[in-house]
Structures are given as C-alpha cells and as structure tokens.
Amino acid sequence: MFNNDWADGDKLFNDTPRIPFMKLQSGKNICRIASNFSKVNTHWEKTRDGKSKKVTCIDTNCPLCRLGHSPSTRYQMKVLDKTDPDNVEAKILEVGATVIRQIIGFAKDEDYGDPTKYDIKIQKEGMGRDTRYSVTASPRRSEISKHEQELIDTLPSMEEINKILSVDEIKSMNLDCFDNDSDEDFDSSEVPAKKSQALDDWENL
C-alpha cells in the first residue's frame, strides 16, 4: 500500500543522486508551480535487506505488474518552495489525485488560469489514511523572477528522476518479491517503456 505521507524527497531513486522533493508538512505549505506536471506510475518494493526502493513502472511486460503488484499513480512538477519566505528553494512536488484535481480546477478557472502565475497554498491536516489536503490560490499574480528561474533550471528532468529500467535491471535490484519467481517467467529483453506523461499546456486540460 502506498504511503500517503510520501512526498519526502530524501529518498534514492534507482540509485540516482538524491532528489530535492518538497515535503508537505502538517499545516500550511506555500509554493509556486514552475512547470507542467507529469503523470508517473511507480512501484514501491521491499529489498531483501528490508529497505524500500522505488521503481518506475515500465508498463509493457513489467515484471512487478506481472507479479500482481499494482503501481501507484502520482503527479510531479517543479516548484519553488516558499513555505519559508527567507529560504525559497527549487524542488519537485509529488502529489496524488486529490491535490492535482484542485490545482487543475484553478487552472481551468478564468479568474486564475495558468498556475505558474500565482502562488498556491496546500493545507495538510491529519495523518496516515486520515490525511486531508486542501488547495487555495493567491489572488496576487506575478512572474517567476530570473533568479527563481535559475534555481528551477538546476533541477533534474522528470526523465532523470523517473529512470526507466529494463526487465533485467529491475530483476537485479535485490527485490524481495523475486525470491520465489522463475527466471523463465519473464522476457528479459529490453522493453519499450512508456515515459512520464507530461502536460503540454495548463490551458489545454
């Protein structure tokens, strides 16, 4: 079961460098969206040494899906974390359907439109299964500054964050779920994988 509280980015992605994710804290979180969003299907799996590892679902012939492990759908976008106004940082925000639907609602509202033009506040309340998120938009509009854009430009691409692996690479990740499977159960050839689905334009939702 996917942990709803996961937005903490100090986790390793397929042995890539640590990604600066925005962790949604209890209470008020303020950010400026700075990119379109990507829809990403991922598996969280236990390794044989008890750790958790994130694996991007490769869709076609995914060995984890074939074991009956359903991926979780999340939505990622680049943001400026403004929760601490004295320490604005560029990060990746990963959210579920509840939050992205509310953001899309503002994007479609003619009084707000493109969410890269104003700050949003994400209010987090409760814990675990009882966690609730509400999104409000600032009525004050502004452009992302040159300095802020430079911060955003230092972030890795969504393709780098959600590295696509072959079946062989997935099976070599020391995952506990493969202990009882047979190597003959999977085609270990390179699999054409579906990339993260990125939105082209907030106005064309």
Q: Could you describe the 3D structure shown?
A:
The chain is an alpha+beta fold. Helices cover 16% and strands 28% of the residues. The protein has five helices and eight strands. Strands 1, 2, 3, 4, 5, 6, 7 and 8 form an eight-stranded antiparallel β-sheet that branches. The two termini are 29 Å apart.
What brief labels describe this structure?
28% strand, disordered N terminus, 8 strands, eight-stranded antiparallel beta sheet, alpha+beta, single chain, 205 residues
Summarize the SSE layout with pairings.
Elements: E1 27-33, E2 38-46, E3 52-56, H1 63-66, E4 72-81, E5 89-95, H2 97-108, E6 118-125, E7 132-141, H3 146-153, H4 158-161, H5 167-171, E8 197-198
Antiparallel strand pairs: 1-4, 1-6, 2-3, 2-4, 2-8, 4-5, 6-7
Structural class: alpha+beta
> What is the H/E string?
EEEHEEHEEHHHE
Please report the number of helical segments: 5
Q: Indicate the proportion of strand residues.
A: 25-35%
Task: Describe the largest sheet.
Answer: 8 strands, antiparallel
Runs in which pLDDT lies below 50 for 5 or more consecutive residues are 1-16, 188-196
Indicate the mean pLDDT: 84
Helix content: 10-25%
**Rg computed from alpha carbons, rounded to a whole number of angstroms:** 18 Å
- Terminal-residue CA separation: 29 Å
- Number of beta strands: 8
Q: Which geometry do the CA atoms define?
A: elongated
Outline:
The chain is of the alpha+beta class. 16% of the residues lie in helices and 28% in strands. Strands 1, 2, 3, 4, 5, 6, 7 and 8 form an eight-stranded antiparallel β-sheet that branches.
